[in-house]
Structure formats: C-alpha cells, structure tokens
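Reply to dn_fold:

You asked what the input looked like. This is it:
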Amino acid sequence: MIPASTRTAPDPAPSQPSRGRLALLPKAGADHLGLAIVLIATCVVLAVAAPNFFTPANLLDIVRQVSFTGIIALGMTLVIVAAEIDISVGSAIAFSSAVFSVLAVRVALPLWLAALAVLALGATIGMGAGLVRAALGVPSFIVTLALFSALSGLALLVTDSTPIPVSDPSFAQWGNGSVLGIPIPAVILLILFALFWVLANRTEFGRSVYAIGGNAEAARLSGIPVARVRVILFGSTGLLAASSGVLQTSLLGAGNPTIGNGVEFAVITAVIVGGANLYGGRGSLVGTLLGVLFIGVLNNGMVLLGINSYAQYVANGIIVLLAVLIGALRPGTRFGGAATAT
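and this is what came back:
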C-alpha cells in the first residue's frame, strides 16, 4: 500500500485554463468575422450609393483620418478592458497641439525636440491621472472629466485662443506624407498596433490588465500590482493622445487649441463596436481596429451622401447603443458586474 504522504492525485487545474482559452478563441474569431462582414457590406453599399467612395484618393483619405483616432483607440482598448475609462483624450489632443506649436514657434525648439517634450508631457499627465485613480480611489470617469476641462482651458490659455501656424515643410510631411503610398499616420498606427497586440497577448502585463478588468480585488490578492498597471494604462492613453495631437498639427499646419473636439466619443465608440465590454474583462485590439475602420468608413460615406452632420451624430449614437446591447446579450456578460474575458 502506498503511504498517504507519497500518493499523488491528478491535478486537472493546469489544463482547465488552456481548454477555456481554446473554447473562447472560436467565439472571438466569430465576433471579428461578423464585424468584418458588416464593414465589407457597408463598403459595398457605399460604393453603389456614392460613386466617389471607391476612388483611391478617398480611400487614402479614410485611412489617414481613421489613423488619428485609431492610435488613441489602441490604448483606450486596454483602459476599457481594465474596467476604466478616459474621456480626456480629446482635450489632450488640443493641449498637445497647442503646446507643440508654442514650443516649435515661440520658443523656437527643434521640431523633434518639441515633439519629444509634448509626448513626455502627455504621458506624465496621463500617469498623474492614473495615480489619482489608483491612490485615492476616485472613479476614472471623474478624474478624466476634470482633466478634460483643465486641458481644454490650458490649450486655449497657452495659445490665447488663436491657432499658431507651423510652416516648416518637413513637419508637414509627418501628417500629410506617405511611405510606399501608405499615409505616414497609418504606418505609425500599424506599428503601434503590432506593439500593443504583443503587449496585450504575449506579456504578463497584458494578462494583468484582463485580470484586473475581470475582478480587480481578486487580481490584487493574487499579487498583481493593480495601482501600477492603472498608472501605466492612463500614461499610455496620454502618450498616444499627444502623438495624435502632433500628427494632426502637422496635417493642419498649425497648432489649434480646439481640435480633438468629440474625439473621445469616436475613440470609445470604436472600442465598443470592436467588442470591448465597458465593465471590463473583455476587449480585442483586432476588434478595435475593425471598429475604427467601420466608424471611419460610415462617417465618410455619410459625408459623401450629403447627410446632415447632426444626423451623423444621431447615427453614431445609435451604433454605440446597439453595440452595447449586443455585447450585453453575450454569455457571461451582465450590466453592473464583471465580464468574462474573451
């Protein structure tokens, strides 16, 4: 007879996460496929209804425009997966544009140095918001709402409410140029997408983000540094918003303290349409990228069809509502509680 101290029992626990993850893969793929089909169908309808839609110039314009939103949406995806929200990104774009133009024109810093300073400032401000959220327990909506108001006011203050032209031809290429026919902002978006995909799917940090979104207290008890992760997440959205602000300044040829108006809504819409759960625990960068393209294509099509701009806001609101309702009907999702990760 084998002594009790030497007996070994089969431990099925290690295999359970693998089976669970494999079981979720087909569902995630189906979600992406469904959104991709809707995107393709929308393109086909617009190609028939708006003859100018499928012209190379218009398609490149769509790609360029969605890149500014998509860059921020990458960071917002992880923020929402962690059951947080950042509504300050629109004002952060305006503030970054204003500060960059002041540094480049009035202070006469080299463009690259002004850009680095703005990126560092954006990341620092974002991390500060994350620190307030993590250390004081203030809801992220309240923290970023306050930041939204403060940055909007600061953008107007540092520029005296007046756009500041940045007329350097080399700088104009940052937002208007292309590489092998692909707009530079789109190239930057693709590079950042690859980096964030690896971060979310192949690193301990990415697993921690999903764990926090599923159950922050359980994640903390398991040894995950919840506060540190939150600070990094908000720092990333601050950095990405600053990047988008610099690129849009290049596109416009001037630092504008009023750009970025409504961008936070567009970014959050794209992330939700891409399948993220506002209550955390679920989200996909691939889905977000598809969501960004879908929103961009739809808005572009409505402009080509001459649809009233106010009606476009109504359409976007309906899309958000439908995306949230569809997400609520998914198994394992419930309003007001944690969601299962997919």
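Residues 328 and 334 are 6 Å apart (CA to CA).
Hope that clears it up.
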